[in-house]
Amino acid sequence: MLEGEDPDTAELEDARHWERVYAELKSFKLRMIETAESAIADGIQKPASREIVTTDLVALRAELRRFDRRLAFWSRRVTER
């Protein structure tokens, strides 16, 4: 969870806030993944660079999955209210 995030909040506006935060983070992470994938597809020349970008993609995709889970959590909380 992010600083200030309270999964037990009863406030609808808090749930909406965190839903927006995670939607924004997910969108940003998707753009980063697309950029890295494009760089690989365009043929990064240096093997070391390609290896680093490939490793970064693993971390970016893991973060995206985490953001997806948190976004789903907060979206459910919004609809429960």
Largest sheet: none
Quaternary structure classification: single chain
Order of secondary-structure elements: HH
Low-confidence stretches: none
Termini separation (Å)?
21 Å
**Fraction of residues in helices?**
over 70%
Determine the mean pLDDT: 95
Keywords:
81 residues; 79% helix; elongated; mainly alpha
Describe the structure.
This protein has 81 residues and is mainly alpha-helical. It has helices at 12-41, 47-80. Helix 1 runs antiparallel to helix 2. The radius of gyration is 16 Å and the shape is elongated.
Give the topology, please.
Elements: H1 12-41, H2 47-80
Helix pairs in contact: 1-2
Summarize the model shown.
The protein has 2 helices and no strands. Helix 1 packs antiparallel against helix 2.
